[in-house]
Amino acid sequence: MKAFADKLIEITERHAEEISEQYCKDIRTNNRTPSYHVIPEEDCLVKAVSFYKNLSRIYFSQRPNRDLYEYFTQYAEDTYNEGISCPEAIYALFMMKKHMWLYADSQALFITPMDHLQAIEALNKTIRIFDLGTFFIAQKYDALKKRDGFIY
Length: 152
Hints:
Elements: H1 4-14, H2 16-27, H3 41-59, H4 64-81, H5 86-106, H6 113-147
């Protein structure tokens, strides 16, 4: 029997386009992410699909800290170069996590008591990934701002 985490990642990858469509609708209208309102929908979709399809690489990594660091510092550099503020980039990441879980919940993956226990384990691991990712994003933004001469 597949662990819930495996099911979660499999569902996320298999339905990355559908999850991304909902995410992009949300982020392109959310009051907390005004910089994303002007990003073309196609660009938003491409980035979100890429994120969801590559999540398993991070989730099941044998070297999670290094892979997380590489992935999220690249995310930070990309969003920084697009002129997106650090708070918006981080909030966008929170919304990616939210939409992944909303989709999984809508697919009724939480059926048996064992599924519920495995869901908690998957949720905890997902939270750790996104929390550490948030730290790496903030750290990279700080380095980029210092490089560009912004003084706090």
